Amino acid sequence: MRRAGRKHYDLVLWQQAMLLVKHVYEVTRVFPAEEKFGLISQMRRAAISVPSNIAEGAARQTNKEFIQFLVIARGSLSELDTQFLLAKDLAFTLEQPDLENQIDRVFGLLGGLLNSLQNEGRS
Known about the structure:
By secondary structure, this protein is mainly α. The chain is built from 4 helices and no strands. It has helices at residues 12-28, 39-58, 63-89, 97-122.
């Protein structure tokens, strides 16, 4: 489902961040009902923020602006990582290797793209 003029669709980072959102929704589906407005909401919002900021940054005019949105996406990913650790500590979920691997994958891709864009600016 590619739409003209939306270059974020081509970014592997954005695609993987979209998969991350799906993993988070699956994992949080079984959390206690009283967490609906707590950790469930926080984790889902942090997860959604990652591909959203990647998309918004990709639509900007300059690499400097794109970098700014990627940094925000990385912050949201760090929030999600922390919230997931809390969920495990609170026994809302067991180990979730698929989610943990996806978080690591997105961190790696984000870091790689940030380094690439920052190095372009230095050339």
